[in-house]
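Hi V.,

You were right to ask for the full record rather than a summary. Here it is.
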Amino acid sequence: MGADWNPGHQQPYSGNGLVGPTAAIAAVQTVFVAAKFYTRFIQRVKFGLDDYLILLALVASLACSMIFIVLAKIGVIGYHFDYVSEMPDKVILARKCTLALEILDYPFTITPAKLAVLLFYLRIFTTRKFQILVYIIGSLVLVLGVSVLLENFLQCRPFAYIWDRSIPGGTCIHPVDAYRIFAPVNVLTGVLILVIPIPAVWNLHVPKAQKLAVTGVFLLGGLGNVASISKMVINYAESDFARDDPTWFAAKYGVLTILEGSLIIIAACIISIWPLFTRIMPRRFRTTFARSTPRRSQHRSWYSRETPAKSESGDGITRPREIHLLREKDRNSSQSLPPSLADLEDQRWSILMDDEVYGSHQSVGVSHE
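Predicted structure:
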C-alpha cells in the first residue's frame, strides 16, 4: 500500500489496480505457452522457430510484468509525479525502468509474437501471392521492432540523460512523441495479420459453419489488436497527462501494455494446444465438437505424420499425409513412427477443416488389417 511506503503522507494511490491484473495476465499467458510446449512434447514434434519466438516473447512479457509490479509495490507507479519527484532516487529508478519497459515491450514481446503468427501462416497457406504478402508484413513488423529498439537507445543525448536530467546540455525526444509515430504502424500490422487469412478460409469448399469456426480461431488473434488500438487512443487523448504525470498515468496504461503482448502470445498458442484440450475436455462436451474434431483414435495418428504435402486443389492449404506402421508388431504394441518434420499446427488445421475439406470422410489413422 502507499501508506506503508511513506506513512507520513496520505497521497492518492492507484497502484493496486495495476498489480492484480498484471499478475493474473502473466499467469494466464504462462499457462498457455506451457501448454503449447507440452503439447508439442507429447506429440514428439520438433520445435520450430516460432516456438522459440513465443518463448522469447513470454520471457520479455513476464519481465515487463515484474517491473510494473515492483514499481507499484515500492511506490513509484501509482502516485502523482509531483509527489514522487520529491525523492530523486525514485525518479531515476522510474526513468531507468521506463527505458527497460520500452525495450522489452515492442521489440522483444510484440514483435516476436507477431512473427510467430506469420510463420504459422506460411506453413498453412502455400499460395505464392499469400506468402509474399506474409513476407511483406513480417518485414514491416521486424523493421518497426528494430526501429523502436534503436529509438530507445538514441532518444537522449547523452544516453545517461534518459534518467539523469542534471547533465548539462542534454536533450531528449519524449517517449510520448515517439510512440505517436510508431503506434499507427503497430496497429496496421495487427489489422493485416488479422484479416489476411480470412479470404483464403472463405474460398474453401466447406459448409459455412466450418468457415465461421475457422474464422473465429483467427479472429482470436485480433484481441491483441484491440489492446493496441486502446493504447493508441488513450495515448493520443491523454498525451499531455502522460507527459506531466507519468507515474500516475502508468498505473492504468501499464495494464494495457501487458495485455497487448499477452493476448498476441495467447492467440499464437491456441491452435497448437487444441489437441491437448480435446483430450482433457469433459466427455459430455465432445459430441458438441464431433464434427470439427477427430475421434480419440485419430489422435494416435498424429504421432505418425510425415512432412505436410503441398496443396493439390489450388486453395493454398497444406494437407498432412498419412503414413502406416511398417510392422505388425508395431501395430500390436500401439507404437507409432516418430514424425520427421511433421508440424502440430498443420495437424490442428486439418482438425478445423474436418474431413470434408479433403473430400473424404475416412478416418485419418493407423491402418488395421
